[in-house]
Amino acid sequence: MSAQWLKPYMPRSLYARSALILVLPVIVLLLVVGIAFLQKHLEDVTAQMTRAASREVTLITDVVAVMETQQQALAAVRPDLVALDMKARFLGINEEPVIGSRRWYDFIAPQVEFELRALLPDLEMVALPSTHEARLYLNTKLGLLQLTFDRRRLSPVAPHQLIVTMLFFAVVMTTISFLYMRNQLRPITRLAEAAQAFGRGRVVPYSPGGAIEVRAAGSAFLDMRARIERQMEQRTMMLSGVSHDLRTPLTRLKLGLSMLPEDDAAPLQQDVDEMQLLLDAFLEFSRGAAEGTPEAVNPEVLLQQIVKDAKRAGHAADLVLVEGAGTTMLRPTAIRRAVENLIGNAVRYGAHADVSLTITPKSIRIRVEDDGPGIPPEQRTEAVKPFSRLDPARNQNQGSGVGLGLAIVADIARAHGGVLRLGKSERLGGLCADIIIGR
Length: 439
Known about the structure:
The protein is built from ten helices and eleven strands. It is 54% helix and 15% strand. Helix 4 runs parallel beside helix 5. Strands 6-8-9-11-10 form a five-stranded mixed beta sheet. Strands 1-4-3-2 form a four-stranded antiparallel beta sheet. The longest helix is centred in the first third of the chain and has 52 residues, at 14-65. Among the domains are: 12-158, 2-Layer Sandwich (Beta-Lactamase); 292-438, Histidine kinase-like ATPase, C-terminal domain (Heat Shock Protein 90). It is α+β, with helices and mostly antiparallel strands.
């Protein structure tokens, strides 16, 4: 629970999380090694080398301090300069020290200057223009003395090279690791795309690949997809077969009833009509969302045609709002059946149906509202179950309903990877049914 605050800032995709797991330890290792090297090893070595060089400089300045002229001083220190591999000269009266600019990556120069100023009280200026030369300007009684010697006597040679080498190989190895990781994650991504497409009612070609565990998951998905397809086909065939086989005896019953007196045949004819309605509902439910194949559909155009057909059928329905635009992969025949069922329910239990459409980059929402009694919140889950009949407040028996209308709509929504949500209409006060499908 203590790490919940960090969750919104973490990446959500598998690629990004894997890259973070891969890169973060490398960065931490570079920081630890770099800081330990700079603070422990490099600074200690630089301090030792600077102290040794300052003792040599002190030897030169001690000799200069007892001389009377600049020429005598230079002549006296010449043997020491040769032995110490240094050069010395006095600056003229109007001559200014040449400091120059340091290189941007010379991060050890500030420590060198700090150490020299602490060890050489007479030090006026320090010039470290490159990694090969160092110039010290010291105040003496004979004038400003310039000492030039090899920079490598003050600090290790090119200390930045270690950091550059570490960064270079870290980038190279991280790039290689990321490419390999991407090849390992690609089968997982393909499996996720195939599962998502199947959840939305589309079957895309997929063959298991990658590591053993990913192959096993892919094979299990293919088996599961095949079982679901077989079950859906068997359900459709069973209900269609039952509905089709029962039509023949019903036809015979109708023929027999037509030969009876009208007073005796009327009650039986009503029973036969109800049985015919049940068979038609079973057949419609068996088709479910399997009719048609997904294709790019403009939802606005489809809804306009559905509402137009509903008006021609005598239903009071209007397309009142359309927000957004674009096409979506849908089964148009199934969506038409779902919306027509919602409009039919709306005008059966109310007087008017309002249809609206909202399209966003991630989803579409088809909403049908009515001014009927609505469905209580505690009964909405039960209402979408097949063959479910609610209490008389909803007038469920009106029109000889069999309790499959909302179940068909929910089945079609699920087949598109979406959901059917029921609520209360804020505009009309009745039922509000939303079909929400991801794009």
